[in-house]
Amino acid sequence: MTETPLLKRAHDLAQAFLQSLPSRQVRPAASLQALRTALGGPLPDQGVDPSLVIETLAREADDGLVATAGPRYFGFVIGGSVPAALAADWLCSTWDQNAGLYATSPAASVVEEVAAGWLLELLGLPRDASVGFVTGGQMANFTCLAAARHEVLRRAGWDVESDGLIGAPPVRILVGEEAHVTVLSSLRLLGLGAGTARRVQADGQGRMNPVALERALKESTGPTIVCAQAGNVDTGAFDPFSVIAPLVGERGAWLHVDGAFGLWAAVSPGLGKLVEGVELADSWCTDAHKWLNVPYDSGLAIVAHPSPHRASMTAKAAYLAQSEGAERDPFDWTPEFSRRARGFPVYAALKSLGRRGVAAMIERCCEHARRMARALGDSPSVDLLNDVVLNQVLFRVRPAAGRDAGELTRAVIARVQRDGICWLGGTTRQAAPAIRISISNWSTSTDDIDRSAAAILGAIAAENG
């Protein structure tokens, strides 16, 4: 029987954490050793009372939590959780549905079907595209590229699902010079090889050069996959899809777009120009746990051609109660059989926000990024490095005489994180250290931006002299 008082206490603890987020220091307070001491030790021979387990876990883990769900976490492209999505996620855990088959959860299957339709409409993608609800960007890229691998080899007369890659026609992979690491990891996991991808020249903002792509495409007529990008991880820049897509189509290649966060620009009338032509691609990856602001473990693999998508993912077994009719078996579209019913939070977020609400959330984050860029750019100690077209702000600190740029960058980041007002991270841009800010949380306010900018500038002044 469910222990209602225990669940009530867990709810109270969760509420307390949520209420702390606006004022909570973003950084974790505990050291590695302190966490190991507090949370570790031998597994007890006898079970511990569940209420004590939960109380102890909440207390001892608290100092090791990063306030990534809060309004001033800018280190990576990490969203928070809009209230409806979080509440639906709690229900998702309570219902404990296996979302692999229609037979194991008709509601989970239908919710994914409905949410997929809403997503395609919202993102301006083909309405008959197929959608897989996966863990995140890497698995979304993996799934889409598995469909691409299937199709380009099928056209060459090879069944990769049956016969594998040994002896298969070689598949050429063309990626932008600044392709995200998850694209390369996906190629490795698919047996295509991360090192085989040919890098296509990009401009200073990371946008693929169409002339260089056209030249690379003409070098071979064999099976080819091109990976483009919607939202460079440093600059937020977009490849020119309206130019790239026809070039790829003319060569009979497959065009995949890694749009882990940038694809959400399509929902905003003011940002739509950034994604012109993206609908001409063959597949798209994005994350709901980034800019849709649903709890973690929510990526989306979208494929314009359902047949290769399904062929690359599905399996048959006598014991499985697989659908024969109109029912949707979710595992046909993902690498997983048994999995969490992650469509419920996506559905709840979309329905609670509506088209206008999603657009307003995206636009608000972008305006915050521009506000942050203006505040930092006014300082003579800061060089802005990107055109702030989306939610990314990239900058470099001008070192005082005799100060090493890399050492200064690390010191500024460490001081900001130590102060705890906000959290940001470092990167390397054109062989030199830089600092990156990503604004993706629904709850971030102008006050959060102003407080964070002041903290960053204060850290620069303190470290640079």
Total number of strands: 11
Radius of gyration: 23 Å
Order of helices and strands: HHHHHEHHEHEHEHEEHEHHEEHEEH
Structural class: alpha/beta
Word description of this protein:
It is a single chain. This protein is α/β, with parallel strands linked by helices and 465 residues long. The protein is built from 15 helices and 11 strands. The chain has helices at 4-20, 32-39, 50-62, 83-95, 106-123, 137-155, 160-163, 181-189, 210-217, 241-250, 288-291, 306-313, 343-377, 405-419, 446-464; strands at residues 130-134, 172-176, 198-200, 224-229, 254-258, 283-287, 299-303, 382-384, 392-397, 425-429, 432-438. Strands 1-7-6-5-4-2-3 form a 7-stranded mixed beta sheet, with helices on both faces. Strand 2, helix 8 (181-189) and strand 3 (198-200) form a beta-alpha-beta unit. The protein is globular, with a radius of gyration of 23 Å. The protein starts with a helix and ends with a helix. The mean pLDDT is 95.
What are its keywords?
alpha/beta; about 475 residues; 11 strands
Q: What's the gist of this structure?
A:
The protein has 15 helices and eleven strands. It is an alpha/beta fold and 465 residues long.
